[in-house]
Every structure is written in C-alpha cells, then in structure tokens.
Amino acid sequence: MKAAASFNADAIRNERVKLLRSIRVLKREDSVAGQYRGYCSTVGVAEQSRTPTFAALKLYVDNWRWKGVPFYLRSGKSLERKATEITIEFQRPPHLMFSLSNSAEITPNILSICIQPDEGIHLKFKVKEPGSEQKMRAVEMEFHYQCFFDGAQLPGAYERLLSEAIAGDPSLFTRADGIEAAWSIIDPLIQSWEDQSTEKLSTYEPGSWGPLEADALLSREGRRWHMNCGMHEDCIEAVSKQSTDPAL
C-alpha cells in the first residue's frame, strides 16, 4: 500500500482498502489449488472433499506504483516447515556496468523480509571479486532480531493484537470494507476450486513444499520460488528456548 497521510487507524486502513480494490480480477489459470494426500482421511473431513489445503496465486495490482509487476503468493498446510516471508526480486538493470563474457552471471538482487519464525532481513546481491575482471560472486547481508538482541522475546501475532485491542488502537485490525474487498478477490476462485464439475485439485505429499503445479506456475515465465530466510544457526538455540519455555 502507499504511505498513509498520518499514522492513525482510519488513514492506514483507507490505504489498505485502496490497494485491495486495485487488484486485478484473478484468472483460474493464474492459480493452483492443492490438497495434501491423506487429508480426506482426517476425522471430520468428507471423503470427497474439495477443500484446498494449499493455494498459489499470481496477481497484479493495477495502480501507478505496481502496474505490470507480478505478485506470487503461496500458502498451505502440512508443508515442509512453518515459515512466513516476503521475497522481492529486483529487476535487471537496463545497462550492465561490467563487460562480462557471460552476462547470465548477473542474477537479480533478492531482498527477503523474514516474518516467522526467525524475524529479520536478508539481502543477496552480486559483487565482482577483487583482482578479477569478470568473475562475479553472490554475497549476503543479514540481520536477525534474535541474534542481535541476544534472544529477546518478541511478541507473538495474537499477543500484539490483544495488547493493541486493550490499548484501543484498531490500526492492525481489518475494517469491514477491507474484509469485503479481500473476499471479493478470492471468493470466485474458491467457488471454482470447490465446483465438482471443474478439474480436480492438485495433490502433494505432506512435508513437501506443495504440488508441482505451483512450481510450474512460476517456471513458465522463467521464475522460481525463493526461500532465503532459513533459520540462522546462531539463533536456533535462542528461538528453541523460547518455544519450549513453560512461561510462554
């Protein structure tokens, strides 16, 4: 969304709604719905259920800032691990400073914003090796809250929401028109996925990263999913200690 005119709930939520209303109508071919094997054997689930447990989408935001930029989203249950991250792949510059024999060496810079479980930021970019004329190497810069602040406990999502509710600040809560705008985007797709007359849902193995069709959604345009946030070794102990602390 664009920056709000002021940091108050109405101004922030107005910009959110503007963004949602700028999202182009989704096409079935720009989505993948999946269901992990064994889901229909779960207690309480119908044998022929078409409820997706995974979804991948390609969408566009038709406003001045994001016109023509594809956004890819995926989410699912029973995946390899629980993680939430935002990856930004920068466009290739129109002119390369270095005369490389193989320009394919210049891969896009990647900025990853790590939200869960190891909050932080990763930046991956290419540099020219010292003393070489053409050789490039990928390097990374990273920041981890748990490492930098010596395992300081960060509030969980619901903990933050509860504290904001007690304080009377609705900024983090979705307004009714925002909920309606969001559902108007995804509801037609959900109805299509659950329609028995349409093609079956894709399937995937529990513990994987979802169905192969989700990879094909990106590969047909020469792209792939990025997972750059992985847990930093120095932070594993601090995060594990928090998750097993009986006081939390």
Give your account of this protein's structure.
The relative contact order is 0.19. The strands form two sheets. Strands 3-2-1-8 form a four-stranded mixed β-sheet, with helices on one face. The chain is α+β, with helices and mostly antiparallel strands. The protein has a domain at 84-116 and 120-153. The protein has helices at residues 9-21, 145-148, 157-167, 176-194, 212-219, 233-244; strands at residues 31-36, 54-60, 70-76, 84-89, 110-116, 120-128, 136-144, 202-204. A hairpin with a 3-residue loop joins strand 5 (110-116) and strand 6 (120-128).
Distance between the termini: 33 Å
Helical fraction: 25-40%
Number of strands: 8
Give the overall pLDDT as a whole number. Answer: 86
The ordered H/E elements are HEEEEEEEHHHEHH
CA gyration radius, whole angstroms: 21 Å
Task: Itemize the secondary structure elements and their pairings.
Layout: H1 9-21, E1 31-36, E2 54-60, E3 70-76, E4 84-89, E5 110-116, E6 120-128, E7 136-144, H2 145-148, H3 157-167, H4 176-194, E8 202-204, H5 212-219, H6 233-244
Parallel strand pairs: 1-8
Antiparallel strand pairs: 1-2, 2-3, 4-5, 5-6, 6-7
